[in-house]
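Request:
You are asked to prepare a plain-text protein record giving the amino acid sequence and the C-alpha cells, at your earliest convenience.
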Amino acid sequence: MKTLLLILLLVVIVLAGALFFYVHGISAADPGNKEKIQITVEPGTGALQILNQLDEAGLVNNTMCGKIFVRLSSPEEIQANTYILNKSMTLTEIFDAMNTGNPKYISQSKFTVIEGATIPQAAEAIAKESGLSEEEILEKWSDRDYLNKLIDQYWFLTDDILNKDIKYPLEGYLYPETYFLDSEDPDIEEITASMLDKTDEVLTPLKDEISNKLDMSVHEFLSFASIVERESLFEDDRPMIAGVFKNRLDQNMALQSDITVNYALDKTGVNVSIADTQVDSKYNTYKYKGLPVGPICAVPERTMEDCINYEPNDYLFFFATEDGDVLYSKTYEEHQKVVEENRWY
C-alpha cells in the first residue's frame, strides 16, 4: 500500500510539474513588454505555420508547449488579417484575437513607401492613409528639436542631417516598406519611429562592413547607395554600377550623376541639360566632387548589400540604353561614342 501511494504521489508530482511547465510555456514571452509587433496572416495559413511566425517574432515563450497548445486547442477559425500584437500576450490571447478577428488587434490601414522614394513621396503616402496632412508631416520631419531627439535615440542619425544645405533631413533614413497603422488617429512620431526602427534593423548588421569595406560613415554610405538605387534600372546592374561610382570616388573624380542634379531641381527622369548641371547645389555632383550633401531617396536592403559587395572593375562611365542594357566605358572618349550611338532621350 505504501508503495502504491508513493507511486501515485510521484505521478501527481510529475503531472503537476508537466502542467506547470505547459502553463508557463504558453504564457507571455515577455510580460510587460508592450512593443507592437506586426503579424500578417494570409488566407489559408494553418495554425502551426502561424505559430512559427509568432515564434520568429519572439511571441512564443516555449515552442514545444506552443505546438502542444495548437494540437489541443485546434484553432480552426483563424481570420486572415494583419494583427498588431505584443510580447505581453499569452498564446491563448493571441489565438483568441485571431479566431475572433478582434478589431482591437487588427491594423486599421497601411501605407507603402516604395524603394527609391523621396521624402515628399513618403509624406504623400502617409497622408493618404493617416489623416495627417503632407504639410504637417514635412514640418515635423524638419523640426530641429524633434530631429535632435531622434539623433539622441538612433545610433545612425548624426548631426550630418542638420546641414543647412540638406533639403530634407531624414531623406534616405526612412526605410522603404509597407507599414500598418494600428490606430484610426495615428501620431506622426509613432509612424516615424516604426520607420526608423526598421532602418535600425537593416543597418545594424551592416555597420562594420560600411566602415571597414567602404571606409564610409553611415551618412556617406546612404548617400552613395541612394545614387546607385536611382541610377540602376535592374537588380543585376547594381553591383557593377556601384563599382563604377566607387572608382570615381577613389580617383577624386566628379560623380556626374544626372539623378542628383534632378533631385536638386525637384525634377524626375534622367535627362538633364547643360544649364541644369550648373545649378549651385551641394547635391549637384557635376559641380561638386565627391558624394552629395546627403541621400536622395529611400534605399532598400538589397541595394545596400550590393553597394557593400560592389563588383570591382576598371570602368569610369556607363550608359543605359533604351532597352535597359548598360554599356560601360573606361575612358571619356569611349563613353562619348557610346552615348552618340545609343542616345534615346
